[in-house]
Write a structure and sequence with these properties.
By secondary structure, the protein is an alpha/beta fold. Helices cover 17% and strands 27% of the residues. The chain is built from five helices and 29 strands.
Amino acid sequence: MSIDSAARVGPKAHLGSNVSIGPFTIVEDGAVIGDGTTIAANALIGRGARIGKDCRIHHGAVVGHEPQDLKYAGEETTCELGDRTVIREYATLHRGTVDAGGKTVVGSDCFIMGYVHIAHDCRVGNKVIMSNAAMLAGHCVVEDNATLGGILAVHQFVRMGRHCMVGGGVRVARDVPPFAMASHAPAVFVGLNYVGLKRRGFSQETIASIDKAYQVIYFSKLNLRQAMEQLKGTATLMACPEVQQIVTFIEGSKRGMVARTRLREE
């Protein structure tokens, strides 16, 4: 274990083996830091932090601090990080609130870039990339393998599906479905995340099925309810697990889905 003499670590903090803590970093009582995790200088690890193994937390980052919620009254809540997640400079990850389950969660193998904000009660999956200054309001859900562009503003309670990609400088007020690409302001559906899907080993057959599903949803001139009925009645498409995931995601939406792009002709 390596703790700089200028760091301040509470006597009731729980540190694993081979933890490194840089100068002027504060680790509050009650924080938990897993084996092999490195924390650079000037960071704040709040009492609600639950940090996994082999994480890398860079200069000035804040993990597990109080939520920015006027209803919060000092309750014991947490901000949980999985293993091998990287938190870059000055990112802020706040703990949850009691009313929403008491925890903010960021999964394993995530890359959270500088100045990112992850608010209270968010759920971020595994292998998620959030680019510089992307911001999640409270209660957002980001599923596994999603990629979010920089200077992104996401409204509270919005969900972003697995393997989606959202462009930089975008305002997201509605759900972004799995495997999709969204851009513009406000965000709209602009097609599949073809590059991401190919890089992650999705077969051409699977990508074609996903594309056909979104043709029905966004370009068939059916309303969303009718599109869902048509999809669920098409056995060849519903045989694809990824299409099933799209249907489940959309049927679970409370904020509604991003609209289609106007750049494509009917």
